[in-house]
Amino acid sequence: MSDLKVFNQTLQHPRTQEYLDSVLGAKKSSFVNNLVAVVGGDRKLQACEPMTLLYAAIKATALDLPIDQNIGFAYLIPYNNKRAGTSEAQFQLGYKGIVQLAIRSKQFRRINVTDVREGELVSRDRRTGALFFKWIEDDKERKAAPIIGYLGYFQLTNGYEKESYWTVEELQAHGVRYSQTYGSQNKAIREQSKWFTDFDVMAKKTVLKLMLNKGDAPLSVEMMDAIKYDQSVITDANGSYKYVDNIKPTAADLASQALSQEAEVVESTEAEDVTQEPSQKSNNELFNEQQVAE
Predict the structure, then answer these.
(1) Does residue 254 form part of some domain?
(2) Model-level pTM?
(3) Which end of the chain is flanked by fewer CB atoms within 10 Å, N or C?
(4) Would residue 202 count as lying in a domain?
(5) Which residue pairs, CB below 8 angstroms and at least 24 apart, start in 54-57?
């Protein structure tokens, strides 16, 4: 049986349909159509455990972030869990999704992230930390100049401002440290990482996410929830999750999670270190009566 048929059978199973009715209500039809379209066009997603696809997509829907890859708000990313011998779907925020959640909070007057080209960073004030830029105005000239870094910026409605600048080298080092795939010595594996295939997207997301996650910006419950689940595999209907492609959360990550009374601080693990044995239950058996009732 093909991977796509397994996915479709899981999606169409009466227990799955009952579960989707309970958690999505009127959104169920559009949810199913969008998920089928995304999975149907990606063979790597088709190979993922169907329930991880479902839970990741439900998280995106709960945050009201479309999973259409072309929009860039949220993504379903396939990950090969070597320990379990399966492929799983990660929920990943896009930088546009972070901007969208910030705007919804109504506490940000402006928020943006941009690449910085060679010659645009003029100087840095070592005393204050202030950066000074001279932007290349001609679009053709600017596109011809190499990217040297990324700049994030926000201004709150109360006037407070903050910016954060990362060089390309700093972002590459961050990607290697936090992504097991991107940090792999195996070229074939490394080239599967989103850090490799979409560096610009990952760089912008990282700059924005860490800038907001340092404690200076007011984070809505939605934003904290999104950051908590970002780059995780959601493993059940109760929202349990695990990090499989990055190392343990930073102190800033844990501090942000602690702000939410409902958030649980959990240990993240690399895929090779996952100690739980793969479930012997079928996908259809993953729904118990309590989960369906919820």
Answers:
(1) yes
(2) 0.77
(3) N
(4) yes
(5) 54/10, 54/11, 54/16, 55/91, 55/234, 55/235, 55/236, 55/237, 56/89, 56/90, 56/91, 56/233, 56/234, 57/31
Evaluate whether residue 288 is within a structural domain.
yes
Q: Are 81 and 119 contained in the same domain?
A: no
Q: Are 292 and 189 part of one and the same domain?
A: no
**Tens digit of pLDDT for each residue in 70-114?**
899 999 999 888 777 889 999 999 999 999 999 999 999 999 999
Note the pLDDT tens digit of each residue in 173-202.
999 998 888 998 999 889 988 999 999 999
Residues 184 and 135 in one domain: yes
Q: What is the pLDDT of residue 180?
A: 83
Q: In this predicted structure, what is the pLDDT of residue 247?
A: 52
**209 and 250 fall within a common domain:** no
98 belongs to a structural domain: no
Range of the domain at 152: 106-218
